[in-house]
């Protein structure tokens, strides 16, 4: 999601970082709204590798950490395992990485 589309004050820097061999260093974000803090619910690549420059500063969110997520009115289900943070809708066909026994797939 483009940072400009996220309400001011909803994202607060979270503890920790990770590294993707393709995109580079990931920054994590707590989501704070309605008096509730959801730790590390989002992540971004503030300065991704050149091949991924289009995603610079966009924020991805783990749907499993929200009460509900929708795409064009459809409820999504989280990709199994939470490692990839995928948003699964009826329009997306598997197989999907991340289920039991698939972490190294």
The CATH topology of the largest domain comes to Metal Binding Protein, Guanine Nucleotide Exchange Factor, Chain A
> What percentage of the residues does DSSP assign to strands (E)?
35-45%
What sequence of helices (H) and strands (E) makes up the elements? EEEEEEEE
Binned, the helix content reads: under 10%
> How many distinct beta strands?
8
What CATH architecture of the largest domain would you give? Beta Complex
Residue-averaged pLDDT, rounded?
89
Count of discrete domains:
2
CA distance, first residue to last residue? 27 Å
> Order of strands in the sheet with the most strands?
1-2-3-4
User: What does the largest sheet look like?
Assistant: 4 strands, antiparallel
In quaternary terms, these chains amount to single chain
The helix-and-strand class reads: mainly beta
Q: If you compute it from the alpha carbons, what radius of gyration comes out, rounded to the nearest whole angstrom? A: 14 Å
Instruction: Look at the structure and give the CATH class of the largest domain.
Output: Mainly Beta
Q: Give the CA-based shape.
A: globular
Given as residue ranges, the uncertain stretches (5+ residues, pLDDT < 50) are none
Q: Output the CATH homologous superfamily of the largest domain.
A: Domain of unknown function (DUF427)
